[in-house]
Design brief:
single chain, globular
């Protein structure tokens, strides 16, 4: 996927679309990838290139996708009307801050995680990623 194909969703070196995360078939996150992104992809690529050779086709990831709540605090889970999370550790950290202990468990055998991003016409941008946790 190239920035020109993304159209208006690509601006300021960031992809401004929700990243949809489902855990065991239930919505877990739908945070907008560009809204609270600290460094744009140009900055990430420049930083990576300072310490290693980058070949054609190198994949650069931006880290966990997360959005602040409207009041500037941590976001809320989808089940509470928020945009949710794309990282269980982040949700557990927010739960610990708010209630003194996490209530969301880490992934266990049999859990299924799905990640997808859709364009304005509901077409998958990078394909749906689906992983099932299995004992080694």
């Amino acid at each position: 996927m190239t920035p020109d194909v993304l159209g208006e969703a690509w601006r300021d070196g960031k992809l401004h679309l929700p990243m949809l995360v489902r855990l065991n078939g239930q919505p877990f996150g739908k945070a907008n990838a560009g809204v609270d992104m600290t460094f744009d992809f140009g900055a990430l690529i420049a930083h990576a290139a300072k310490s290693r050779d980058l070949a054609a086709g190198t994949i650069i990831g931006s880290g966990t996708v997360s959005n602040r709540d409207a009041d500037g605090g941590p976001g809320k889970p989808v089940r509470e009307g928020g945009l949710g999370y794309s990282c269980i550790a982040e949700q557990r950290m927010v739960e610990t801050i708010q209630s003194g202990k996490p209530s969301t468990s880490f992934l266990k055998d049999g859990d299924r995680v799905e990640i997808e991003m859709l364009d304005g016409k509901n077409h998958s941008i990078f394909g749906r990623i689906e992983q099932v946790v299995a004992k080694a």
